[in-house]
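User: Please predict the structure of the protein below. I'd like the answer in structure-token form so I can feed it into my own downstream comparison script.

Assistant: Understood. Taking the following sequence of 367 residues as input:
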Amino acid sequence: MCGYADAGTARYAWIGGLRLAGREAEIPTRTPRIVAVTIGGQTMRFAVDAQESWSTQSTLTFGIEVECVGLNTRQATAALRNAGISCEDAGYTHATMPTWKVVTDGSLNSRNGSCEVVSPILSGSDGLTETRTVMMVLRNAGARINESCGMHIHIGVDQLPQEEQANILQAYSEWQWAFTAFVLERRVNGSWSRLRSRQTWDNLISEWRNTSDVRQLAHQHDRYYALNVASYYRHGTFELRSHHGSLNGMNACAWVALHLAMFDAARVNDQDFFGHNILGAEWQHQVTTPRTTMQDLNGVVTRVPVLDAVGNQVMRTDTVSATRAQGVAGAQALVQRLAHNGYLALDAANYLTQRAGNIPSARSNNS
């Protein structure tokens, strides 16, 4: 018997079928809800509708942390509640809550208020849709991003066998530079989201496979890496920390879907995703030398590998730095393999392929 994981996925597939058949007129429309948000004595009214997002068949859970400026915790909480989203103004806490929470974050710089909006444990296409809706509400209520903002996601792995967790670390280690094509260059190997050298990865993966207590091992590690294993100790998750601040729900959900797909491929030990260290061990050592930045690595323009229209790797002289271009080529190859092997929805894959290396400015809410 064939079916869909949830109602959101079924509706998404049904609408897609109507579009492919040229029957757009049969697609039902939704009546948006009008909500009012009062900030600083001024009342704003805007339409709120559940925002459709990418579909995912992954059974892994996830969460998201959205850092933004322009709203304080009270204002953000009010906006979300007025839009019908369960939310608590939680002050400062790392506790996982059953609803969305709005907390303070001392790393954010703004004269007009700031906050971090944190999801409950989410899953499936419905979780992606909820994420996109929350971002739309925040944006319409006046939230913005600046260079102090980041966006972190958590993927739940505590229910997976230890060997599958280690497989995820192994696969991510080989593709870590590909993921950098989706974030602003200033976030690559930053102080809050460092990359690991090949040797550091090998040591971590070996320890993870062989330890008798992965939770205690996670507790011994620093959390300021692009893939943070320390979060496993408290939350049972691997945290992805490198993404710049964003209120673009389509992008955020694609970023989540990409990691869900990658984790699923690694879990089952799909060999299409192993043995593909796109930059080699020598470069992996260079990138994680202390204080090394993208500017240090950009070097001279050279001939670099890129993908042609049908996915074949070709060499091209480009004005983009070799390291960035290699990241883009790796990102496109990764996305195409995930889609081809059935881990990533085709529409999300097309979006990510176009976005790799093509990111709006740091101050854009569409980043």
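That's the full token string. The longest strand covers residues 61-69.
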